[in-house]
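STRUCTURE REQUEST FORM
Protein name: Porin
Source organism: Aquariibacter albus
Requested output: structure tokens
Priority: standard
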Amino acid sequence: MKTSIPARLRPLAQALLPLGLALSALPAAHAGATFKIDENNSISIGGGLRVSYSSVEDGAPSGTSRSNDFTMESARLYMSARIQKVFGVTFNLNGSEDEVKVLDAYAQYEPSPLFNVWMGRMLPPTDRANLDGPYYLSAWDYPGLVSSYPALFAGRDNGVTVWGKPLDGKLTYAFGLFQGHNRKLGLSNEDAKLLFAGRVAYAFLDAEPAPAYYTASTYYGAKDIFTVGLAMLQQSQGVGTAGNKDDYLGYNVDVLFEKNLGPGVLTLEGAAYKYDFKNVDVPAASGNVGGLAPGKAYLAGAAWLFPQAIGPGKFQPFVRYQRSSPDGPNNEVKAYDLGLNYVIAGHNARLSAVYTNTESDLTGTKIDKFLLGAQFQY
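Status: completed
Returned output:
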């Protein structure tokens, strides 16, 4: 059955196709190269890059003209090693503009799919968006309007996680203890209370092919997916100052459905969040300090992957809606995304064109943004 791209999306398709054709001579992207030392030990290395052009309404330095910005959003170096098969080390770096930081750095004990232990800097088990990271979303931009759990850097924190995938991988559990929020003299966590993070997800159809307890928001039809996840983070004395503190509690439910229907792959995603504490946190600062607000948030998204290849890739239009409703009057912020991905090699080679409109009740403004992005991993 032949399908065609809707007329309203054809200008975006025409913008993406020439770049995709120019890249068609590149070798297929993959997850990196593995060098085998012997039958029990190996080293792997890979990388990732996200670059974009964006134009934002009133975003120029004048405050009255559109901005025109070319951004190196992320350059990543992935490194890992296996030692005697059951032990491992992962060390990943992330660079953006002129700054390079440690992204992940953890030791691994992985004796079985049912039980594993990681210790170091890693992604705490939270919502699907955070476990996707920017490279494995359906949309381009991270949904930071709704997914705002405390983190040290790029969703990470220092701690320990126990995880496993029983029932042939259909059930994924992950529980961890982490350094947590506001761990600073004069702030709420000067007593160094740990943050607990836990997630349980069940796949009612195929088990998700993502590694460990990680996720993606689309698998481009490789599996039939219907997964429901529940996550909770709790920390005593997690928000506020030493003299005005409160316990932190945040939790969410997220759902992913994906099905190859023949004429295309349908992807549906949703999430609901609750951040439950008093409005006492300090303004955001560097590190895992300040900036948290109580309230509710919601996310909904849909995508459709056309089956026919045009040039080296396939087109995938998507829509996404975010709504953040912090406690208090007139604080709601909404964002609408309408975009088109040109999928060359799954999440390893993808181009994106996105229009975003953000509405704020607090400021009474509506701001639109147009973005062209390119993402590659190897």
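Reviewer notes: The chain has a mean pLDDT of 92. Residues 128 and 215 are 6 Å apart (CA to CA).
Form closed.
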